[in-house]
């Protein structure tokens, strides 16, 4: 018998046109090849650092909305991984470029960055736990997809890539496990929900996937406030 489609199968299928655009973005491709302009990467590291501070708050909101201890444990695990593992990568890269932790933390978020985190935080504060997960899932899932894709496309030249650690981090077991746990949780939370509510979850998933595109674009063109 054919396996029935899960909610995340549906999300994955429908988001393909957006994720393909993300994967083909010159920022992502040049990062994988190792040819990305250093200034663009620095812009990204700084913006992503402050993005992650706000993004981590989504996990904290999720803890308060969790229905049981096991779910609280899952969220505190990804919260810990983000603050101490993912952000450590940024701190290490920044140090290589002579940027201090304080400088990283003092970064002013660009319009796209503010819009992206505000969208998620508003939905998370006002919505259900399922809505929180729908917002944060593309970040975790698409980065994992990108890590795997870049390893596949450019794995043979990875040793000479100055951004090698980036690819290795997102392609890692830790991130794969984190993304899989969130995918499974999304399916559990969507179980039995009427189409009206599923459509709201899918809207969040698509919107944050589109913000991922805008985030790559903002960094590639080093967009910022006019003054
Ligand atoms: C703009 C932007 N989007 C996604 C990620 C990736 N990411 C954020 S938190 C996390 C761990 C969640 O399990 C991952 C993989 C990022 N760094 N920056």
TrEMBL record:
Annotated keywords: Hydrolase, Thiamine biosynthesis
CDD domains recorded: TenA_C_BhTenA-like
Pfam family, one: TENA_THI-4
Gene3D superfamilies: Heme oxygenase-like
EC code: 3.5.99.2
Keyword Hydrolase part of the UniProt annotation: yes
Catalytic activity: thiamine + H2O = 5-(2-hydroxyethyl)-4-methylthiazole + 4-amino-5-hydroxymethyl-2-methylpyrimidine + H(+); 4-amino-5-aminomethyl-2-methylpyrimidine + H2O = 4-amino-5-hydroxymethyl-2-methylpyrimidine + NH4(+)
Family: Belongs to the TenA family.
Function: Catalyzes an amino-pyrimidine hydrolysis reaction at the C5' of the pyrimidine moiety of thiamine compounds, a reaction that is part of a thiamine salvage pathway.
Protein name per its UniProtKB record: Aminopyrimidine aminohydrolase
UniProt lineage: Bacteria, Bacillati, Bacillota, Bacilli, Bacillales
Gene name tied to this protein: tenA
